């Protein structure tokens, strides 16, 4: 039998709608609003700084490394080739680039499923550069309270000097960041030597200026707005979260009801939890949220609130980890499951894609070969009465070593090939070679006959390609 829920009709006049007072409204992202982040120290912050320093060092050092006398990593968009140590990728190697992008995506999905938004808090360039800028800000303008007081003061010599030095250093960091980033796409040594003597190309100067102001604006001014309003990852991360995902969370059962008290007071006698409502977790948060309100998409899992809360708990003589990296399942008293359908699925997909990438690289032939028939002249007859077709053979040596190739044509009896039998190409060289094929018309039964061209590396029989083309007569 169908059960219905009784509904009582209420006249609109009896509905009391509570509207917030205009004086108490708060827009965290108003143009004149700003989050003053408090400095924090602790094990999580130390780990985040060490990881950020390591990744920063990798970012700075990689473009300066050399391999076989050339820049080890060079993403040369102009010449359409990407050199990654001993591997050179061309536009024809789209599958390898596709595997790399898909592996990166599924690795991010797997990490998010297991450990939440730790990418944002520990390894994201936006977060890393923002904390670098905040470090200079603290050194030049002081602590959180001192920065707030400084911004409230009228402009004077001291304030002007501090602000000028801060923004000057920000711009220098942004400039060096931009030049390093552009150095991945062009010769970085030439870039640094030419830029400061005003000899760089317009493309290089434009790119450096763009990324300089992008870095300065993102890390210096926009900061948390990039993480909460612009970055799409904050929006779709919830699709990968579940109750077994490790997140930065507040233990509400232990902490509530919150309230201030002295160190000697017994919270149980006062009917209070362990949270003393000091708001330090809010003051150290780079996105300005209160983690005690539960899981929020603005949280980047940086763990700053963990260190701040652990420090307070230690001073109060309470157990640590009132705020910690934990799961909803654990907070509910259950046991966290690492191996579950979602995490296993992402893991298997990641392994499969990695295997396909390895196979693609192992069986990749570092050679591109193509033949194009001359369309200006369909055919011509030579002095011997043979019919000739002209072709252009395009060869790309996709390796980084010089190679000697042998060329030949076949497919019809008594075919004459006029062109070089051997060619030598240096690493990464592209060459177009005109050749002519002549055939006795006695052997041509149709107006369109298929012939083949073969290229073979002299020192490696695995590097071999054969392509088909058409021979036209009448």
From TrEMBL:
Residues 1-29 are annotated as: Disordered. Keywords: 4Fe-4S, Electron transport, Iron, Iron-sulfur, Membrane, Metal-binding, Transmembrane, Transmembrane helix, Transport. GO terms for cellular component: plasma membrane. The keyword Nuclease does not apply. The keyword Ion transport does not apply. Pfam families: Fer4_18, Fer4_5, FixG_C. It comes from the Bacteria. Residues 266-294 form the 4Fe-4S ferredoxin-type domain. InterPro entries: 4Fe4S_Fe-S-bd (IPR017896), 4Fe4S_Fe_S_CS (IPR017900), Cyt_c_oxidase_cbb3_FixG (IPR014116), Electron_Trans/Redox (IPR051684), FixG_C (IPR032879), Helical_ferredxn (IPR009051), Ig-like_fold (IPR013783). The chain crosses the membrane at residues 50-67, 96-116, 168-185, 197-216, 344-363. GO terms for molecular function: 4 iron, 4 sulfur cluster binding; metal ion binding. PANTHER family: FERREDOXIN-TYPE PROTEIN NAPH. This is Cytochrome c oxidase accessory protein CcoG. The gene is ccoG.
């Amino acid at each position: 039998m169908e059960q219905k829920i009784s509904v009582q009709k209420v006249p609109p006049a009896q509905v009391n709608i509570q509207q917030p007072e205009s004086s108490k409204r708060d827009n965290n992202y108003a143009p004149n609003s700003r989050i003053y982040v408090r400095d924090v120290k602790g094990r999580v912050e130390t780990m985040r700084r060490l990881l950020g320093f390591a990744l920063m060092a990798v970012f700075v050092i990689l473009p300066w490394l050399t391999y076989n006398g050339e820049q080890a990593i060079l993403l040369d968009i102009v010449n359409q080739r990407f050199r990654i140590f001993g591997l050179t990728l061309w536009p024809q190697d789209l599958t390898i680039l596709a595997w790399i992008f898909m592996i990166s995506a599924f690795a991010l999905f797997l990490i998010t499923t297991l450990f939440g938004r730790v990418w944002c808090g520990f390894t994201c360039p936006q977060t890393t550069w923002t904390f670098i800028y905040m470090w200079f800000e603290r050194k030049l303008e002081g602590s959180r309270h001192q920065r707030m007081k400084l911004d409230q003061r009228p402009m004077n010599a001291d304030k002007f000097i501090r602000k000028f030095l801060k923004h000057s250093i920000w711009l220098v960091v942004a400039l060096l960041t931009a030049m390093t980033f552009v150095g991945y796409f062009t010769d970085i040594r030439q870039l640094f030597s030419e830029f400061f003597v005003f000899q760089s190309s317009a493309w290089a100067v434009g790119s450096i200026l763009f990324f300089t102001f992008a870095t300065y604006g993102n890390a210096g001014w926009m900061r948390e707005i990039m993480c909460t309003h612009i970055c799409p990852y904050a929006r779709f991360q919830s699709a990968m979260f579940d109750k077994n995902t490790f997140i930065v969370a507040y233990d509400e059962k232990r902490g509530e009801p919150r309230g201030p008290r002295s160190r000697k007071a017994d919270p149980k006698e006062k009917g209070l939890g362990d949270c003393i409502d000091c708001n330090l977790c809010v003051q150290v948060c780079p996105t300005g949220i209160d983690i005690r309100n539960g899981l929020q998409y603005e949280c980047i899992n940086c763990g700053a609130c963990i260190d701040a809360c652990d420090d307070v708990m230690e001073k109060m003589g309470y157990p640590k980890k009132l705020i910690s990296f934990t799961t909803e399942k654990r907070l509910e008293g259950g046991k966290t499951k690492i191996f579950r359908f979602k995490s296993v699925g992402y893991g298997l997909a990641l392994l499969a894609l990695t295997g396909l990438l390895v196979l693609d690289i192992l069986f990749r032939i570092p050679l591109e070969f193509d033949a194009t028939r001359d369309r200006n002249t369909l055919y011509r007859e030579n002095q011997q009465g043979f019919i000739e077709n002209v072709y252009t053979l395009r060869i790309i040596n996709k390796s980084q070593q010089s190679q000697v190739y042998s060329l030949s044509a076949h497919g019809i009896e008594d075919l004459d090939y006029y062109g070089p039998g051997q060619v030598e190409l240096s690493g990464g060289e592209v060459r177009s070679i005109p050749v002519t094929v002549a055939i006795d018309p006695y052997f041509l039964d149709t107006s369109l006959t298929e012939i083949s061209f073969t290229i073979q590396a002299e020192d490696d029989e695995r590097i071999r390609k054969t392509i088909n083309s058409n021979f036209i007569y009448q």
